Amino acid sequence: MLALRLVRTFRPTALARRAVVAGMAGAVGFLLLSALGYAVAHPERPDVALSRLLWCTVPLAACVQFAAAAARTDPCVRPREGLDAVGVGPARLPLLAAFSTALSCAVGCALALPAFVHLRVGLGDAPLAGAAAELLGAGRELPWAAVVTLLAVPPSAAAGASAVATRLRALPPAGPVAQPRTPPPVPAGLPWGVAVTAVGLAVEAFAADRAVSSPGPEVPMPGSLDGLGPGVVGGWLLIALGLGLAGPGLVHLCGLLLAMGRPGALRLLSGRALREEAPRVGHSLGMLCAVVAGALATARLYGSAGGPPAGPLTLLGAAVVVVCAVAGALSAAAEFRAARASATAGLRRLGVPRGTLRAAAALRVAALAAVLVPSAWLIAELAALPLAR
């Protein structure tokens, strides 16, 4: 009840983020139900059903990451005197954020169920009735225990990720932050992110090599979800996880590059801001880099292979990933702006012109693009190489 009352106090931007979280969770729930429908309608093809279910983990991971990023920017996770009065202090704010996120995702999944049932049995003689029936496995009764279990996955995963993200935000930063001359610490996730990305590339290359060299149909990449096995899906998930872990380190590297040599006031201000806020916005930018790399790899594979057009479920999953990545980056930008509000106000009181602050923001964006875009292009080339043979 407290979470519902707090939702009423949200600003339109916070409500819009919650609406996007609900919509993305509903789309993920629809994809999970479609995988279940295919498995029930085609019991003789368990490998394809497993591959379709594993492909749902890609939009699920994107939705969970965006839900955690949105939870960090919610007004309900900020300490308030009124919340302390009712016993909701900083230690219980993660539980409040988890419940609020689970509620939004549950609403989206609850709306996905009647939409799935209607498209599965209620199209009649519509032009797309046959295709929808084949994709969603019409004609077989769904096990409702499995339906409830699958629809509970997005709210549960998003709630757990939101609680962890909110708790990490509430923890005091390590090191003597109170000394203004101490440089921001280097994020420790860059080596781990590089290692996980390398493992993901190796797993994808090994799985693609086995799929191509083994007897049977070739790996239809691009194509339907039936062609790529669990190894390729797992490799792509590891690549995205690695880039997400390496994101804060890459943002910190952008700040170091801006401050190299003998920087002026503009470069020094921009580099310092990037280094200070790298742990806050790096993960979302790393996931956006992973999505850009996946889009570049898919575009190259479509251009080289000339495969069939993607199906509606593939397009829905891709739309979920893209929307979650872009919305997560926008949420990170809003969090960055809120975190720098006091510093910006102090600079304004010192007489710094607004044009200088805008130039510093543009310089930060240019530095991020100069580092993240080549990184995404390199990962895309490496990821597409095993599948383009």
TrEMBL record:
The keyword Cell cycle does not apply. Keywords: Membrane, Transmembrane, Transmembrane helix. It comes from Streptomyces macrosporus. The chain crosses the membrane at residues 20-40, 52-72, 93-117, 144-165, 186-208, 228-260, 281-303, 315-336, 357-380. This is Integral membrane protein.
